[in-house]
Design a protein that fits this description.
Layout: H1 8-14, E1 17-25, E2 28-34, H2 44-51, E3 61-66, E4 75-81, E5 86-87, H3 91-105, E6 109-114, E7 117-123, E8 128-135, E9 157-158, E10 161-162, E11 165-168, E12 172-177, H4 186-194, E13 204-212, E14 215-222, E15 226-227, H5 232-244, E16 252-257, E17 260-266, E18 271-277, E19 279-287
Parallel strand pairs: 2-3, 4-6, 12-13, 14-16
Antiparallel strand pairs: 1-2, 1-19, 3-4, 4-5, 6-7, 7-8, 8-18, 9-10, 11-12, 13-14, 14-15, 16-17, 17-18
Length: 291
């Protein structure tokens, strides 16, 4: 069977195994596998090996494209962390998959379904994709937190990171605002805060600094335990958290991360739109499992 993602030469090669495409959004990279015609259900051990940068392809997450589970989307996307944990959302992954599927079907707009809901993706320029990231959740049970508390002031902290805003946009986040991000060692404080008892499902830890009223600088320590070069959902909640704290009134902001920037727009209906770049690294195949 010839696959539309690949050239003739690549199609000849991938007959030897399970085809994949590797993409990245601001160096947040993904191995993407098509499981629509032939289901793909790798074990945790296989996922760990695929994502391992020494023994496997290497990626921050494994993405499996499946048939849609409702009539509202073109495809369903499973988003799986390097430890095998399946998550509801990833902004950079959504942009990459959205672009890949728009290329496949020749459309300029498409809907993809995730555990976090249906996301609308559209072309926004040359290898630029805008994604409606869904509804922000601010109620303590929806983040979730281990007990009822004010999500605008969680009151936890470590070192220079104190009293974050708690939010969820498909995955749990805690956003700390700091005066000088370069002075914060997130690799030191991130692991402790990620596993704070207040987060029963752990949390992504973001540290944000205002550069001006329309620009944030952001760094994120992500589950399962890595300092990322970019975090799409983290950028969304950082802007929303700034609004909730009354630190800005701007609805459209630029969020600068180590690998580059995204544009975040807060809509009146509570939705968040993220626009940013995508790139294709290469295509290949994963060896078939030995019986």
């Amino acid at each position: 069977m010839k696959h539309p993602w690949f050239s003739e030469a690549q199609n000849d090669l991938i007959q030897q195994g399970r085809p994949f495409v590797k993409m990245h959004g601001l160096r947040n990279d993904f191995v993407i596998v098509d499981g629509r015609e032939t289901p793909y259900t790798p074990s945790v051990e296989e996922i760990v090996r695929i994502c391992d940068r020494h023994e496997g392809v290497g990626a921050d997450e494994l993405l499996v494209i499946e048939p849609p589970r409702s009539g509202k989307a073109y495809a369903f996307v499973r988003i799986i962390n390097t430890d095998g944990r399946e998550v509801e959302a990833c902004g950079n992954a959504s942009r990459c998959v959205g672009w890949l599927l728009m290329e496949e079907c020749g459309r300029d707009e498409i809907r993809i379904e995730t555990l976090g809901g249906v996301l609308s993706c559209r072309r926004a320029g040359e290898k630029q994709v805008a994604v409606e990231m869904g509804r922000l959740r601010t109620v303590w049970k929806e983040i979730p937190l281990s007990r009822e508390m004010d999500t605008l002031h969680l009151g936890i902290g470590a070192g220079p990171l104190q009293d974050p805003v708690g939010m969820n946009i498909g995955n749990p986040h805690a956003v700390f605002f700091v005066d000088d991000l370069s002075a914060v060692d997130l690799t030191r404080y991130g692991p402790e805060l990620q596993k704070d008892p207040v987060f029963p499902e752990e949390a992504n830890i973001g540290a944000a600094q205002f550069l001006d009223h329309k620009t944030l600088r952001l760094s994120v320590w992500e589950r399962p335990g890595v300092l990322t070069t970019a975090c799409g959902t983290g950028a969304c909640v950082a802007v929303a958290a700034a609004h909730r704290r009354g630190l800005t009134t701007e609805k459209c902001m630029t969020v600068i991360m180590p690998a580059g920037s995204v544009e975040i727009e807060l809509k009146e209906d509570g939705m968040v739109v993220m626009t940013g770049p995508v790139e294709t690294c290469y295509a290949g195949y994963l060896p078939l499992k030995k019986e």
